[in-house]
């Protein structure tokens, strides 16, 4: 499968599936852009020495699903990334468990939630764990699988644009490309890209896409792409590290929303 997913409207950017050789470039964009990310700010991640570096371990796990998307400019520089994560219902994971047996491969129960187990074992900084728990809390408020009668889903886990390239609509376009990838995986017209020893969630076929939109900018993107708002929380209602999240974030971005749409 070619890694190229097409270009933007002007032809100045090319969208690609993330491959092994661009992992560090994608993580550099994540590192720079996350300093502006509301939940990270609200949790005091940049007041917690070593936390931003530890958070990168989570992104290195997310990319193992093989469906992360990058935007590359004409100089072949990565300027944006959408870290995408696949999820399945419990019933589908049971089905995949038995595929191991039929193929005479020792089943590994931990594969039911490899990211969750990785986080539990490796993520120790308070702000990192608070961030993940905050996202989990929002996502648990609505059963996305039940609402959309889906067995598989793609979570648009994080979208980051190089601060030098913002306000050009790249966030919207890379989200659109992520939806195209999800549809391609569902229709089996695209294949995941292996960036580690193996592809995680290789058999999951997404039928719905969802995301936690943490700023007014990401919320506008989801509205333009016909995502439905399923739940909303206010930053002023959460205290982490001795402060309200809203005290760190400011008055512009007031809520985080769980959004989703059928593919």
Automatic annotation (TrEMBL):
InterPro entries: Acyl_CoA_acyltransferase
Protein name in UniProt: N-acetyltransferase domain-containing protein
Membrane-traversing stretches: none
GO molecular function: N-acetyltransferase activity
Domain of life: Eukaryota
């Amino acid at each position: 499968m070619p890694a190229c997913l097409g270009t933007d409207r002007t032809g100045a950017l090319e969208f690609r599936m993330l491959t092994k050789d661009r992992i560090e470039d994608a993580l550099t964009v994540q590192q720079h852009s996350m300093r502006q990310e509301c939940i990270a700010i609200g949790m005091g991640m940049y007041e917690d020495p070593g936390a931003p570096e530890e958070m990168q371990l989570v992104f290195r796990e997310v990319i193992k699903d093989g469906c992360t998307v990058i935007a590359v400019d004409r100089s072949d520089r990565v300027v944006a990334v959408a870290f995408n994560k696949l999820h399945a219902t419990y019933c589908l994971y049971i089905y995949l468990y038995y595929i191991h047996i039929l193929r005479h491969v020792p089943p590994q129960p931990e594969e039911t939630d490899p990211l969750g187990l990785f986080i539990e074992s490796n993520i120790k900084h308070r702000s990192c764990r608070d961030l993940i728990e905050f996202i989990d809390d929002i996502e648990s408020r609505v059963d996305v699988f039940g609402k959309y009668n889906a067995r598989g889903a793609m979570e648009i886990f994080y979208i980051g644009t190089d601060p030098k390239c913002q306000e050009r609509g790249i966030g919207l376009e890379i989200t659109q490309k992520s939806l195209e990838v999800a549809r391609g995986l569902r229709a089996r017209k695209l294949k995941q890209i292996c960036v580690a020893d193996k592809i995680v969630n290789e058999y999951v076929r997404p039928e719905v896409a969802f995301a936690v939109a943490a700023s007014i900018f990401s919320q506008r993107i989801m509205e333009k792409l016909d995502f439905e708002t399923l739940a909303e929380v206010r930053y002023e209602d959460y205290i982490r590290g001795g402060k309200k999240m809203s005290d760190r974030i400011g008055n512009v971005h007031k809520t985080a929303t769980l959004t989703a749409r059928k593919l």
